[in-house]
Amino acid sequence: MQKPLSGIKVVDLSRFIAGPYCTMKLGDMGAEVIKIETPGKGDDSRALGPPFINGESAYYLSFNRNKKSLTLNLREAEAKEILIKLIREADILVENFRIGVTAKMGLTYEDVKKIKEDIIYCSITGYGHNSPYREKPSFDVMIQGEAGLMSITGFPDGPPQRVGIAIADIMGGFHAVEGILLALLVHGRTGKGQFVDVSLMDSIIAILTYQAGHFLATGEAPERVGNRHPMITPYESFETADGYVIFAVGNQRLWESFISRLGREDLGLDSRFADMQGRNSHPADLKEILEDITRQKTTEEWVEIMEGAGVPCGRIRTLDQVLTDPHVDAREMVLEKEHPLAGKIKLTGVPTKLSLTPGEVMAAPPTLGQHNEEILLKLGYEKKEIARLTEGSII
């Protein structure tokens, strides 16, 4: 069955996370993604670890499925010629170099437009091309701090916290996919390409939502509140006899069901807790009362009690518990693929489920230069030429 992006060709000049995550998602939906890597080295993330599987970085494997790897030494004119031939056949180019690098390489949007007039060119940077900080280097943890995310993550009596995944990079990848798909829609109507400018800083600011709204409405910066929600109470984790349980009591109806299941209907008569505004004004008082109760039973007992009343609740699980859960099998969120060097490897699945044209994990992440010959043969190179280019470290 044809996939949504079948027939779309992507030249991927990105590395680390933001760009590779974007192009991986395009590949999941059927695009042909040609990942350009440095001969002998490849994407910098190939060296990150442990863990490694037979020498292959698990970090790299996490972001690069459904791609073909072509090695090009872009300091060499012949390698640049190969790239130009690829761009002429491509629909999309994705890069996440620091601003100024593509100018030195002769690969800015204006340069590439001269090669392929209708190219969709996506540039993912830390701050964006017209930011006053555009030339600053950036990594995920810097953006989490600079964009304010760390200031609202963690407990009030502790230091600011980084989110446990590279959320700025990943959200940058998501917004890049969004921009590319929108540009493809415009291209379908007008035949014109365009420049897609995605900033990691913007990507975090965009997801601040109600936390940004708090400042914009009051002029006061929100503070860290731990696992508690700043506008819904109770909505956090509570200690139990053997761990923690999460309650998310999002409205008055759920509150009434919640306190009924606790056997504490009297809490609804307490003026501090009678409505959401009151509960939000006295979260510490309420938590102390609730934890005196929740410590009397195990996490599983509380989940069973609250699920029976339709009160949202849950456990705090470790990734070994999550990734072996029946949900993961039912939703195909962990799949096994054969890798040329690492053997059978497990990868996370495609989260967006389309009924008619579903995405798919078709191929394991490539080894470095795995598709050199395949790609160059399609571009019209003879095998003896490919051998010469290999021996000369052009590819």
Key words describing this protein structure:
395 residues, alpha/beta, Rossmann fold, formyl-coa transferase, domain 3, six-stranded parallel beta sheet, three-stranded antiparallel beta sheet
Overview of this protein structure:
- This protein has 395 residues and is of the alpha/beta class.
- It folds into two domains: 9-207 and 325-391, Rossmann fold; 235-316, 2-Layer Sandwich (formyl-coa transferase, domain 3).
- Helix content is 38%, strand content 15%.
- The chain contains 17 helices and 13 strands.
- It has helices spanning 18-28, 58-61, 77-89, 101-105, 109-115, 140-146, 167-190, 200-207, 209-218, 252-262, 276-281, 283-294, 299-307, 319-322, 326-330, 372-378, 383-391; strands at residues 9-12, 32-37, 52-53, 56-57, 68-71, 92-95, 120-125, 195-199, 235-239, 244-248, 313-315, 334-339, 343-348.
- The strands form four sheets. It has a six-stranded parallel beta sheet, with helices on both faces. It has a three-stranded antiparallel beta sheet with strand order 9-10-11, covered by helices on one side.
- Strand 3 and strand 4 form a beta hairpin.
- Helix 1 crosses helix 7 and helix 7 (167-190) crosses helix 8 (200-207).
- The radius of gyration is 25 Å and the shape is elongated.
